[in-house]
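Fold in tokens:
===
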Amino acid sequence: MLIILAVGIGALISVMVSLNGGLQSILGPIAALTIIHIAGLAASFSFTPLLGGLPPRKRRRPARILLMAGALGLPIVYLNNRVFLEGGVLLTLSGMLAGQSVAAALFESSPWSSVRAGSPLQRLIPLSFILPGSLAIAISAEVGIGWLLISWMPGGFLMLQLMMNSRLGSAIGQDRMLRWNYLSGLTPPLLLILLQWGRFAPDLLRFSEVPLHLLIGGGVIGVAVIAGQSRLLTRMQALTMVLATYLGQFGMGIALDLLSGRPAGWMYLAGSLLVFLGLLAGEGIRRR
């Protein structure tokens, strides 16, 4: 059941990447980041009561650095949008997978992780399939090595954010964690707009030209993704969660590319097979 939920979250991530990239292509990065976080903050107040919160007596003061986890969303969203506009959804997803997989393997070896999956050497086995597979997928996007490396960075940032969110949520509750995420992510671009109003205001004021699904879709879906992954991270192994999430990204990514007229080539399919083998290897190590 947990793997099915992770697959669903992966599909939502693909949709979110496409919506956020479309928004940035119209308004530019600063205005897009601001609107995405405004939509996410509003959604966090509207929907997170369904997640439940910690009773006041069980709450504890978190480390201040954890309150800034949402700020990591800025490079994640910005870099994902740039990669999406440069090489499409396939490059974005494969890069995210590679970065998350490496960071997840490191996380499972850290004191912060409550789960262990084999020896350090065994944890490298899934990566020996995933990294070449994601490289093959990126090659199919026909971009330079620089964009390939950039595409890996958001996944590492995302894994660090998930790790911080998991601890923050256990201290103040999932509902408050999501609100802090979007508030801390909204503050930097909003301050930048206020300080340089003449430069960024024209982009922000063009929001009326943007379709409604682009304006609110990415931020609202982001709430569901952060909440779901933070919960799953406390119930399943990080690397398994990343790989199951990838399956959802892969399926939805294929659908989105077909809808946009960009068929998946043989290199992408071969890379996807390698990644699937990595998933099986990770599951096999977990079950031992």
The longest helix spans residues 73-108. The chain has a mean pLDDT of 80.
